[in-house]
Structures are given as C-alpha cells and as structure tokens.
Design brief:
It is a single chain. With 338 residues, the protein is α+β, with helices and mostly antiparallel strands. The protein is built from ten helices and ten strands. The protein has a five-stranded antiparallel sheet with strand order 1-2-3-5-4. A three-stranded antiparallel sheet has the order 6-7-10.
Amino acid sequence: MEEMQAILRNYGLSLTFYEPYGKVAKVYTDKGVFALKRIPANEGMEFIRSLQFLFQKGYHRLVPVYPTLDGRYGVLRGLHLYYLMPWLINKEKEERNKRHQQMFRELARLHTLSAQEIPVEEGERKQHYERMKAEWEKQEDFLEQWIASCEQEIYMSPFQLLSSLYYFQILQALRFSKEKLNEWYEASKENKTVRTVIIHGKLSPDHFLYSEDGLGYFTNFERSQKALPIRDLLPFLSRTLKTYPTKHEECLEWLLTYLAYFPLREEEMLLFLSYLSYPGQILWTLEQYSETSEEKDEKQFVRNLQHNYWQLRNVEYIVMRMMERETSKEENQGGHSS
C-alpha cells in the first residue's frame, strides 16, 4: 500500500485500496478507479517515445496514459516504470468476428498514421537476404539428411514414420518461402528506403479493449517500436493458425480487412508470404528430436509434430488464398492497362 501510495502521489491521487491483476493493479482512489501498470524500466523508454509520436500524429485510439503532475508519462521506481490509465470496463458489444475485424481496421489506421519512409544502407537489404537464404538452405539440407536417416532404419519410430509422411509438404513450404524471398529481393533491391510503422508488438484481442461508448482502444503497448508492418501480422497469424486443420475463413477476412485500409506494397507482400509460409515450428521439432540422445518422450514428440503439421496446412490455405488474390489483382491491372 505504501509503495502504491507513493507512486500515486505523483498524480495527485490518494489511494483507498487496490486489487492486483497480474502486472496491472486496479487502484481505487479519491478521484475514481484507475489501472496502474508496471513494466521493466528498460522497455519503458521506447514505449513512451511511441506514445508521444502517435499522439503527435493524431492517433488517440490507445488506452490513454495519464501524465504525472509534472508532465511525465511514467514513474520510475527501482527497476520498474509505472504508468496510469483509466480502468476500462471492456464490455464486448460484438461477437468474436466483428471484434477482430474492428481490431484489424484499427491496426491499419495505426499503421497508416505512423508510416514513415526511412533510408536503407545499400548493403543492408542484401545482407539480410543472404543471411536468410543461407539459413533456409541449411534447413533444407538438414531436412534431406533427416529423411535419409529415417529411411535407413529397419523399423522407424512413430515420429520418424510421421515425419516421412509429412516430408513432401514441409519441403514444399520451405522451397516456397525461399522462392518468395528471392522475389522480394529482386523487387526491392533498388529501393533506397523502406516503409516502417509503429507496430503494437503484441497484437491480440485481449489487448483491444472497449470503452462504455463501444469504441475499441489498444492497450499493452510496451512492445511497440518502429518496424515493418508485417511484424504485427506474422505473430498473430502464427498463434491463430495453431489449431486443428480448418479453412480459416474468418482469419482470412480479418487480414483482408486490414489490407483494405492499409494495402501492402508488392515487396512487402512478398516478404510477408515468405515469412508466413516458412515451416519454422515443424523444422524446430525435427531438430529437437534428432538432437535428443537420451530417452525420448515419443508420444509428446509425435503430438508436437502433428500440431505443427496442422498449423502448416492452415498457413498453406491462407497463403494460397492470398496468392489467388495477388494474381487476380495483377490480371485486373493488366486488363486495365491494355
């Protein structure tokens, strides 16, 4: 209570009591109820810079951060930074699909208002391309060696048998990723700049809260930074597509909502498709299995592989639909120009 009271004094508030909710405290004061959040101090500076930049750009659909009496956006105590926000009731006015769509529309707006062209050193893009290409070629070699070693077994383990069955699809996904990476480099190597935005950094419906008037606001903004717009999309899709195999029509819809308001450029789309289709999880599971020399938990490894494969198929569906969309866009443009 004393620590909390000392922090709230910076805001001219007097604490009555508080309830802890993980890293957030719901604080009851003489001037109402607020949310007080604690984050590591080293994350705080980038977070505050992002906030100030977005406010200057006129973007206000973030859960507001109240300044202290002397105008700071946080209170530093030891290794932590504390900041104060209103406590949102977060009444869900809509069902899941509409909530996600509103979040993606708002994300597109956030990216649009914060977009900046920044210069890229001549060799920087080439270095990134060569590093990724070398890494993925190494993975392809590993995959081929792994399958060769499985085929030499007289009796394959259930894991080896399953990975042999999945081999062709894993290889296809890896080659597709490399192909899109090559196309990205060809399409962008002459560009002198790259488009960055302020990314949320931890996009999730849990971090998109509704006020009493039904407006959606982003919260949990501590991971925000200047980065490529696809850095918000990829982790969200990776998590969302980690389910049993299904046509993720809703997920595709959310992505198309975002693209309707913030279209990706040709080279951004190529890089997005390259990273999205890269079968990183399944390759990591194969490596873990091959490197585990002591008694293996065969059942757990098989379960992980199965889940990774389902994710691979879900990603494949989204990628193929996006490819169809890009192809029809090019055909329409070709038709208009002729």
